[in-house]
């Protein structure tokens, strides 16, 4: 386990907040939808932007910490948590940016599917209500009529 004063150093480089085991909101922050999952990370970083994510990854690499990434949704298996490691929580990074001219949408990693649906009617497809997104495997199945999303993805940051 990493020393408490060491993980506190990470907090100084974040725009978002770092929740540590001694913080009052720690138990609520580590709770997931599946009540059978009880993991205790060394810290939970609520990232505000890409720079925060980069700082967390660099910190974890330097200190040989296990990393779990938690998006805006949930994992029934508790994959967004880890014991004695660093949880990178993207839930604050939930922006959806629509460009109707290029018919593109930029979606941040903390979005839930409901937030990520195109808000501009010119970008919607008939099957938009049936999407299922799997961030871990990089696949998206909007239905048999449309096919997987990965050919439509232009970039991943």
TrEMBL record:
Keywords noted in UniProt: FAD, Flavoprotein, Oxidoreductase
Entry-linked SUPFAM superfamilies: FAD-binding/transporter-associated domain-like
Lineage top rank: taxon: Bacteria
Pfam families: FAD_binding_4
Cofactor needs: FAD
InterPro entries xref list: FAD-bd_PCMH, FAD-bd_PCMH-like_sf, FAD-bd_PCMH_sub1, FAD-linked_Oxidoreductase, Oxid_FAD_bind_N, Oxy_OxRdtase_FAD_BS
Span list, region Disordered: 117-157
Compositional bias ranges of the Basic residues kind: 124-143
PANTHER family: BINDING OXIDOREDUCTASE, PUTATIVE (AFU_ORTHOLOGUE AFUA_1G17690)-RELATED, FAD-BINDING PCMH-TYPE DOMAIN-CONTAINING PROTEIN
Name of this chain's protein: FAD-binding oxidoreductase
Organism: Hymenobacter humi
Classification of source organism: Bacteria, Pseudomonadati, Bacteroidota, Cytophagia, Cytophagales
